[in-house]
Design a protein that fits this description.
Layout: E1 8-15, E2 21-28, H1 31-41, H2 43-47, E3 52-58
Antiparallel strand pairs: 1-2, 1-3
Amino acid sequence: MNSHQTFKRYAIRYRDSSGCSYEDNVYASDAMEAQNLAMEFNEELQRRPHSITAILQTPD
């Protein structure tokens, strides 16, 4: 098992209940981890995980 893990930057795009768009950025090993991290640190996403509209890998 390789102990060296590569992290990439991901943009998590979502809408709040009024339809306004937002974007959070996290570093993660893959898109699923990025989603989980965003949900862990963002109360809006904890309440409304279905509000995520995109998870995009972005350049550093």
